[in-house]
Amino acid sequence: MSKSPTTAAEVAKIVNAATHVTAVGGRSKWTFPAADTVTEIDLSQLSGIVAYAPDEYTFTAKANTPLVEIINTLAARQQYLPFDPLLANAGATLGGTVACNTSGSGRLRYGGVRDFILGVRFVDGNGNVLRGGGNVVKNASGFDLPKFMVGSLGRYGIMTEITMKVFPKPAAFGTLVLQFESVAAALQASFALANQPFELDAFDFRHTNGSTTAWIRLGGLPNTLQPRLTRLQTWLQTHTSVQTIDTLLEDAAHWQGINALAFAADSPNVVKIPLPPRKLLHLDEDPAIDLAHYYCAGNVALVTTTDITALGSALTRLGLNGLLLRGTATNPQLGTRHWLPFAQRIKTALDPHQKFLEI
Amino acid sequence: MLTSTFYTQLAEICPGNRCLTRAVDLLPYESDALTAFRATPGAVVLPETEAEVIALVRLCHQAGVPFVARGSGTSLSGGSLPIQDGVVIALNRLNAILKIDPEQRTAVVQPGVINLNISKAVAKHNLYYAPDPSSQSICTIGGNVAFNSGGAHCLKYGMTSNHVLAMRVVLPDGEVVEMGSESVEGMGVGPDLIGMFIGSEGLFGIALEITVRLLPIPEQYRTVLAAYDSLESAGNAVAAVVASGLLPGAMEIMDKLALKAAETAVQAGYPAGAVALLIVELEGEAEQVEHEFAQLIDVIKASGAYEIQVAETAAQRAKIWKGRKGAFSSVGRLSPDYVVQDGVVPRSQLGKALAEIERLSADYGLAVANVFHAGDGNLHPLILYDGRQPGALEHAEAFAGEILKLCIALGGTITGEHGVGMEKRAYMPLLFSETDMDAMYAIRLAVDTKLVANPGKKLPSDEAPALKLHGMHPLEQAGIISRE
């Protein structure tokens, strides 16, 4: 059974009436087999930017607003979502981005979804419309429910409206394309850069066809970009084992490709893994992984696999966890989750009748 | 009152002089930096290990005795105020920096570590810890976590919550939970429990070990002082800087009275006679900053500043910040008592908010010194009063309450970074609906079934954990400390 509410109050009404509910947004991520007893709430009618205040660096949008609409609206005022949400052109929505915590390569510079969310309106399992946070860029009142919703996967409430902070968009970008002998060499370069003053917008790397390619992006004022790229290039040649460096000035298409997971186009399963860089090489050599794309200077991995179960076991063994971004699973969460006892308590308060999926 | 059995059990966990129960020993803990309130705890314990903290929490939960964790006691909202006859768990001895990983840019610290000590410890790696509350030379990370402390650089870099990657915490019943990772993505999968815990003001338990992210020290700073003949012009300059597309690390404003106090205390060299002073700081790669600086100077010149100064050396920059960060304590020179508010308004409403505060100041007959994070719209009006006069505190609190209502009316919030604590809890229902408040109570009850973790703070309740104090801090009365 599927319903398409147009307001938060209607969402609440459906939650109240149903035994089990699950919300669906832009369908750009994983799919799961829904049981007959579950009422599907199609959020497509809850779409549109409610308020945008460029001078405040904030906007409020209904949860199912497509990212593309937000990105275009912000771009018209030279602003952007610095956390670079994944799958923007594939139809991903703001609510899905928050629920799945899908920051992209650009997260390196200023942080992820959690660092930009300011306010949220959602329907809890009691059928109450709740509000957390606010519309201003700084707020310490109440429990931080907006952050709590980041990564919550619809298991504690259904978001209907979200307020976020935005930043001025750099006027120009440029990318250095580097070749390394191995993933280990690229990681070492990232470690070497860690305490340097270069302000990187993105640092991704991937090993394919016998060599490792890395992409480092800088953004800023147009007249400073070239000298900054040159300086970074010289530094990398002196301090790392980089083999070759090319400069890519028209780099938007390249980064859009990564955002769209183009490198994994042929893979049925893509998993996003938050990764302490110290564990990167252990993960990288695991046989369950077919292809690994590392971003955020080795702090996040996007991996493809044909065996989700084997990957889940590997993550548990390494003390890691991951989220299935593409594929089919009843539970997209893989690996260890030490935090369950705390989450379970909050689940008890927000969803005492287990209307939403189990955590 | 605590039972003798309970005292014995406390002393078994923290033996000897690490379990304080005599009136004279409890006196220093009766108040925090919100000196208008005080309460006498039943005991103050000084654990030295994580295991002791866990044992103390379990004991309190089992006995149903309320507890509050305390670091340096710098809370401006009464957050670390004792619960009358409860237990204060003072975490200052858990002050080890356990691990520094410069390549991963992470540090693992205990809750009693002083904020600034992290930056000092990692400076040799050319790294620093970004959140910089004005009290950073004495406040602890545990307190920063409890209150999601901010500072002057929040617009660009965020608050404490944005810099914590992992934590081990003890929940109010003694269960220990790990969350997050040494990845900058932190939690990654699952609801952001780190974000939920940070800023919960002790209601969800105590952070035992905190993994923070570090940033490279910026290559170049450009710190600009601009003097204006009105607060409104300074506020408009902030709007102009934002509109120009610049993203400064900090934008601060001080008014005439705050400047007078800071100048007297620190001799920061601020432009003489300014009605309002704007501090703007750019930082980053040298090449980029120099071009942004040229752009900034153009904006500031066009904004009507009558004097512009630029810090030429690191020492000059340090002095500018010393004056700004010492502004609160400097105001102590002008008045025997003050209450500081922490409301936030949309940046575009700053001018309106300041004009209204000025009007209220005249109405109430109480002077106000304004120091604020203009880039965030985060106001810090300091309302000066003399606590020795009967009714003066209540009069000042009534004024403060009007400012909070004003912030809400202008689309903002009652606290940006100091937390709700004791003093603002009554205003929570003005900001949140009854349903929202009920949900917060339900969450709190689900996490802390016996309501032993810092009860009476953050959420309004009938509990009255503290007495109001008229006049000086207990230590001032006792002649132990002075504000000079």
Radius of gyration of chain A: 21 Å
Strand line-up of the largest beta sheet of chain B? 16-13-15-14-18-19-17
Main sheet: strands, sense, barrel of chain B: 7 strands, antiparallel
Q: How far apart are the first and last residues' alpha carbons of chain A, in Å?
A: 22 Å
* Total strand segments of chain A: 19
The ordered string of helix (H) and strand (E) elements of chain A is: EHEEEEHEHHEEHEEEHEEHEHEHEEHEEH
Q: How big a fraction of the residues of chain A is strand?
A: 25-35%
CATH architecture of the largest domain in chain A: 2-Layer Sandwich
Assembly state: heterodimer
Low-pLDDT stretches of chain B: 469-484
- Distance between the first and last residues' Cα of chain B: 37 Å
CATH class of the largest domain in chain A: Alpha Beta
The third-level CATH topology of the largest domain in chain A is Uridine Diphospho-n-acetylenolpyruvylglucosamine Reductase, domain 3
Classification by helices and strands of chain B:
alpha+beta
What fraction strand of chain B? 15-25%
Mean pLDDT across residues of chain B: 91
- Count of DSSP E strands of chain B? 20
CATH topology of one domain in chain B: Vanillyl-alcohol Oxidase, Chain A, domain 3
Number of domains of chain A: 3
